[in-house]
Amino acid sequence: MSKAVATPEKARRGRPPRALAESRNIRDALIQAAALEFQEVGYHNTNSNRIAARAGFAPGTFYNYFADKVDVFSAMYLRWSQEFSLGLRGRLFAKFNDEAKTARSATKFVITHRANWYRIWNAAEMLSTTEPRVRFVCRRARKDASIELLKLLPGSNPAEISLTLHQAGSLSSFFASGEAEAVGLSEQDIRSRIEHLFVELVSRVPNTVGSADDVY
User: Fold this and answer.
1) Are 53 and 116 in contact (CB under 8 A)?
2) What is the predicted pLDDT for the residue at 12?
3) Which among 45, 92, 146, 184 counts the fewest CB atoms within 10 Å?
């Protein structure tokens, strides 16, 4: 007996495959537009109409895909943090001749990412204290990142990995915000501290893990 292919989304909504693809494309466009808006003008200085217009749609289109601004921020942050984790993973576990080179690559990636998207990182930290949906996705993102890295770190545990990522992220934000410079710490000071964190982490990685092709 042949097995039927499950198409729950099509069955629920009655949409043909092309309509489903178009729907996903519109949702993706709204998420991308939201990311740019949040980074350029800040979370509180934009709204659903601006996000829809930036994506090239009428204002009402936004509400066909998201309940409100918190909803699109949550969806954007979860996807965005997954992409960040994949980028870090590729650099952190690339197979180099020495751990210091791996740590430098990972450090450069984290600092650059925080600097380029500082307002989004900052908004996530702020909103997670007041918005349960954002708090949920932030915790999920941290947990998912730890689980992924744990697969390659049998000598560690999720708590250790989470602490390392948190410290590296906080130091990067400290630099990106300008606060490090204000107290007399240079970019090299911050880089050295983060590199030390990553050297300790990658020292637990088996030599057979990773490929240098993933680094740049």
Assistant:
1) no
2) 38
3) 184
Rounded to whole angstroms, how far apart are CA atoms 180 and 115?
13
> CA-CA distances (angstroms) from residue 107 to 111, 164, 186?
6, 12, 15
Question: What local confidence, expressed as pLDDT, does residue 4 receive?
Answer: 39
- Was domain 15-66 assigned CATH 1.10.10.60? yes
Q: Where in the chain is the domain with CATH 1.10.357?
A: 68-214
What does the alpha-carbon distance between residue 210 and residue 95 come to, in Å, rounded to a whole number?
5
Residue 204 is classified by DSSP as T
CB 22 within 8 A of CB 66: no
What is the rounded CA–CA span in Å between residue 123 and residue 210? 33
Mean pLDDT check: name the lowest of 31-40, 78-87, 155-164, 179-188: 155-164
- Chain segment 155-207, per-residue pLDDT in tens: 777 888 888 999 999 999 999 989 999 999 999 999 999 999 998 887 766 55
